[in-house]
Amino acid sequence: MRPATQNRKRSRDTAALFIAAGLVVLGLVIIWDSARLADLGGYSGLGPASMPRVVGFCLILLALWTATAALRGEFPERPPQQAAPVLWIVAGLAAQMLLLHAAGFSIATGILFAFTARGFGKRNLAMTIPIGIVLSFAVWCVFSQLLMLHLPAGPVEQLIFPRG
Amino acid sequence: MDAYSFLLQGLVTASDPMMLFYALIGVTLGTAVGVLPGIGPALTVALLLPVTYRLDPAGSLIMFAGIYYGGMYGGSTTSILLNTPGESASIITALEGNKMARKGRGGPALATAAIGSFIAGLIATLLLAFLAPWIVKIALVFGPREYFALMVLAFVTVSAAFGDSALRGLTSLFLGLALACIGIDQLTGQARLSFGVPDLLDGIEVTTMAVAMFAVGEALYIAGQGMQHDDQVTAVKGSVWMNRLDWMRSWKPWLRGTAIGFPIGAMPAGGAEIGTFLSYAAEKKLTRHPEEFGEGAIEGVAGPEAANNASAAGTLVPLLTLGLPTSATAAIMLAGFQQFGLQPGPLLFATNPTLVWGLIASLLIANAMLLVLNLPLIGLWVKLLTIPRHWLYAGILLFATLGTIGANPSSFELGMLLAFGVLGYVMRLFGYPIAPIVVGLILGPMAEQQLRRALSISQGDWTTLVQSPIAAVLLGLAALAFIVPLIMRARGKGEMLSQMAGDED
User: Fold this and answer.
1) pLDDT digit string (tens) for B442-484?
2) Which helix H or strand E contains A52, and what residues bound it?
3) I need a labelling partner for B206 at 20 to 30 A (CA). Which of B48, B53, B136, B327 fits?
4) Taking CA A116 as the corner, what is the angle to CA A111 and CA A122, rounded to the nearest 5 degrees?
5) Average pLDDT, chain B
6) What pLDDT, on the 0 to 100 scale, is given for residue B64?
7) For position A95, what pLDDT does the model report?
């Protein structure tokens, strides 16, 4: 449930204007991409480019609507946000993505685990990274050995299961 | 054969010891994950999808059915004992249930929720079983234009009809439709919007997107709000059993909740929360103890909980018989079917009746298991509620990425998870609903294909879309579902619609 909208500020919402701009760009990219498709409409008169064109066009219309709403200040109030915790989690996901194949599932996911806990206020990385790695390794064992999922193996996994 | 004998056959399939075992694992996992604060049924189903990757289709779907029902049960426990409903469909339960728990009547509140859910689940699943063959019969005469009209109706109801803004609902839907265009065109084989990146040729994976939106986006959003509130778990004191008066006051709301919830779930009208609101309003009107409402009235827990579960079973009607997901949870279930190359719909009833009826029967079994599992083990579930948030969300992201890596161990897929997670965060921040983008992504290609087929049949004549009475009625309903809320909002009655909005399902 959102807070009551009575004390809504009737002022310009710059952030929402950026959303409108983003929607325009997205719509134009889609229309531009559809231009190079050979439009083999066949009997239907609708080819592969038709749907993207309609979607792109609608996105631009929605962008105009968004811009109007933003200028009138019609977007709901946003809860105050802190950047640091959000960035810690994004950093954790990025680190996992980059390390996944080099360091294996356990280490990469352990770092994600610790960084997420950091984002939620558990600051001691020297403690949370080892916990994360041990936990991720346990998960790796269950899912790759028992449930036969292909999870990338790294030094930790190869140390204990030499054949992967 | 009629529904009755099909159902009996299904029960035979589902009573195979191995299948019972899968169902048991499903309900246990579903309850355990569903009970965690902040996790609704959509995320429960998405997170547990990888567990089922390597099973055979029947076992996996049966486990899935258990997860789905288990997640619903778990959610109600959270909202009674912890005043933070993880899913919009439980908001109402929290209203009265948490008050009851604070008065030391948490036990009866949990009991009436569990028994109400059981009864609603039982009746609604039986209704599903008996309705399904009828709808399948009707659906067999559906051609491409009727399917297209049906999908348009689903698009409108999911995005524009409820919620506090048609603009944001439609934007979310069209973002989903734009993402649905990515990949190889199904009819001509041309690559669209892939910009030469081979990873994009297969299109966007629905589960990656759903997990990113629900798990990563939610985690970022909660983390961004900082450490303002710590939720208190209300201890369950006294007996979990209901006394005679509780029973007397509960049984009618259970039945009324079921009667309200099932049709709403079965219509292509979106999530379970609308039914819970209507049921709450009905109970408030009919009660003999109006003074207790807002202070912990048992009817206010019994009715909405029953409605919640009845509409959960109701959403399976369009999903199984038409292949039409009408909520985010159903969209992810559809992805679960598709990982085995199964397309739910009338054909599946003809080609694989054992599987479909086994699934329906296992819903009945899962429902009974949940009743047994929930009440005596309540202490265990309460312990899960006390997991600190930093471990909880760290664990959620661990499993979210595990699912993505398990489906496709590539850094590119993780990059998409991150990108969609950030998108989900921004959408939450600006009040965009999440369900339309997921439904748009999964139904977009189907709608496009059906439209192109319909127009191929008519040789490009667009009037064909309204020449069939069924399609015309469905498109008319879609137009109404779009226009009426616009007028209501313009007249300042938007509050009511935004009350019916759901963030999760």
Assistant:
1) 888 889 988 988 888 888 788 888 888 888 988 998 888 888 8
2) helix A50-71
3) B136
4) 100
5) 82
6) 83
7) 93
User: What are the extents of the domains in chain A?
Assistant: 14-71, 83-160
**Residue B476, amino acid:** G
Question: What b/e string do you get for B422-460 counting C-beta neighbours within 10 Å, with b at 16 or more?
Answer: bbbbbbbbbbbbbbbbbbbbbbbbbbbbbbbbbbbebee
Residues of B in contact with A56 (CB under 8 A): 178
What angle, rounded to 10 degrees, do the helices at B57-81 and B353-374 form?
Answer: 30
Q: Report the 3 state secondary structure along B427-495.
A: HHHCCCCCHHHHHHHHHHHHHHHHHHHHHHHCCCCCCHHHHCHHHHHHHHHHHHHHHHHHHHHHCCCHH
The reply to whether the predicted model has a pTM over 0.90 is: no
Q: Which residue of chain A comes nearest to B453, CA vs CA?
A: A44
DSSP-assigned beta bridge partners for residue B184: B191
CB contact under 8 Å between B224 and A30, yes or no, is no
Q: In this predicted model, what pLDDT tens digit does every residue of B334-355 receive, in sequence order?
A: 888 887 888 888 888 888 888 8
Q: Is A60 on the interface with B (CB under 8 A)?
A: no
Query: From the CA atom positions of chain B, what is the Rg in Å?
Result: 22
Q: How far is CA B136 from CA A127, A134, B118, B124, B499, in A?
A: 57, 50, 26, 17, 34
B337 to chain A, any CB pair closer than 8 A? The answer is no
* CB nearest A112 (choices: B193, B401, B426): B401
Q: Rounded to a whole number, what is the distance in Å from the CA of A82 to chain B's nearest CA? A: 5
Residues B221-248: what's their mean pLDDT?
71
Cβ(A26)–Cβ(A59) below 8 Å = yes
Chosen from A13, A18, A71, A97 to mutate, greatest number of chain B CBs within 10 A:
A97
Give the angle subtended at the CA of A112 by the CAs of A110 and A114, to the nearest 5°.
Answer: 70
For residues B10 and B119, give the distance between their C-alpha atoms in angstroms, rounded to a whole number: 20
B402 interfaces chain A, CB cutoff of 8 Å: yes
Candidate from A43, A59, A128 with C-beta closest to B178 = A59
Local confidence band at B422 (pLDDT 50, 70, 90 cut-offs): very high
**Angle ∠(A69,A75,A76) on CA atoms, nearest 5:** 160
| Cα separation, A143 vs B50, whole angstroms | 9
CB < 8 Å from A in window 89-118 of B:
91
Q: pLDDT by residue (tens digit) across B355-411? A: 888 888 888 888 888 888 877 777 777 777 778 888 888 888 998 888 888 878 888
User: Which chain A residues in 82-111 lie under 8 Å from chain B, judged by CB atoms?
Assistant: 82-83, 85-86, 88-90, 92-94, 96-98, 100-101, 105, 109
